[in-house]
Amino acid sequence: MAGPIVNLGISSFGYAFGEDQDVASVAGTYVRDPERVLNWGYRTFHRAPDGVQATDLAAAAAQQALGRIGLSADALDLVVLAVSDVPEYLSWDGAAVLARELKIERAQTLLLTEGCGAGVHGPYYVASTMAMQPEVDTALFVAVNRISEFHRNRMNLINTVLSDAAVAVVLRRDHASNRWLASEQFTDPEHSDLLRIDFGGAVNPVPPEGWSSLTAPGGHARIREQFANDPDSFQRFLENRYERLVEVIDAACTRAGIDRGEIAHLIYLNDSAASISAVAEPLGLPLERTNAGLAPDHGHMGAADQLVSLGLQLERGELAAGEVVALCGISTGRWSATLIQI
Questions:
Q1: I need a surface site. Which of 81, 155, 236, 299 has the fewest CB within 10 A?
Q2: What is the spatial distance between Cα 180 and Cα 341, in angstroms, rounded to a whole number?
Q3: Is 182-191+217-341 the same fold as 8-176?
Q4: Which helix (H) or strand (E) holds 275?
Q5: CA distance 31 to 215
Q6: pTM here?
Q7: 182-191+217-341 architecture in CATH?
Q8: pLDDT in tens, 200-258
Q9: Residue 341: beta bridge partners?
């Protein structure tokens, strides 16, 4: 049966950003060829101070979202946290810690670690919980990205400037606006190792002697190495990125019972204008109906990109009541889409 499995909507947004950094001024401290970074088109990114971790950003965003509607954290039936970079500790549940930071004595929590796409498909887990548990009426969903510069070079992993931020949304059953319509996701596991960190886990607990994220090969070196002997496979990999985004958006539309032509806005990762356009064009949407205007001033905030953009565009009056917005993204090997009706 097409249509939402449960009626819920976003009633509040909250944000927490690292300190603004000018890309042109600091790119040379991260890479030897800063001109390559400047060509991506980013002007500003957010860098959290050394003492501010992902949980701090998540808690600040959550408190703002709750405060904007005068809601006590004790009223939450579910807390979901999506973390898209290295957590503060191993064998550690960031969602439970977030609940503790909010001074919740007893809570149902869920931790998502699927990378950048988790901010898109996270609301599905809220919706499915509400569908299965009629007593769950109010949920908090937080997506946070806080780059560990020891592990990753924020300007040499992919063709984006990685940025530190968190976004929190309060989702309420039967909320009439910003309604969740459907979510869809699928995984192609073939290339799931492309952007992994090779040390810090059980296989290689510590990095090689003398290793530094500032001098280590970037993420593109790993990609080139994996496809070195198969250029045709590499070309298919590049083409599939965008084709599968359209595929997963179409699947979400089918699940919601709407036509692709009813989508009025697209919010993708905070990528370059060219990449965002490649996703928007098959949907018949111009760049001004995407997040292309916001991306250069925020950088790629991991799982927080799409919901930050959705909230800011709402606050700016760029989205009209009744319009359908498609949020979409890619984690390594995972494509996701969520449809929101304003």
A1: 236
A2: 7
A3: yes
A4: helix 273-280
A5: 8
A6: 0.95
A7: 3-Layer(aba) Sandwich (3.40)
A8: 999 999 999 999 988 888 777 777 777 776 777 777 777 788 899 999 999 999 999 99
A9: 179, 324
Distance (Å, whole) CA 324 – CA 140: 22
210 sits in the region (left: phi over 0; alpha: psi -120 to 50; else beta) called left
Q: Where are the domains of the chain?
A: 8-176, 182-191+217-341
Phi, psi angles (nearest 5°) of residue 238: -65, -45
Q: How far apart are CA 11 and CA 192, in angstroms?
A: 35
**β pairing state of 109-112 and 44-47:** unpaired
Q: Which helix (H) or strand (E) holds 56?
A: helix 54-68
pLDDT tops 80 at residue 310: yes
Task: Give, for 241, the enclosing helix (H) or strand (E).
Answer: helix 231-256
The CATH architecture to which 8-176 belongs is: 3-Layer(aba) Sandwich (3.40)
Nearest-10 crossing angle of helices 54-68, 94-101? 50
Beta strands in 188-319 (DSSP E): 263-267
3-state secondary structure of 228: coil
- State how far the Cα of 290 lies from the Cα of 276, in Å rounded to an integer: 7
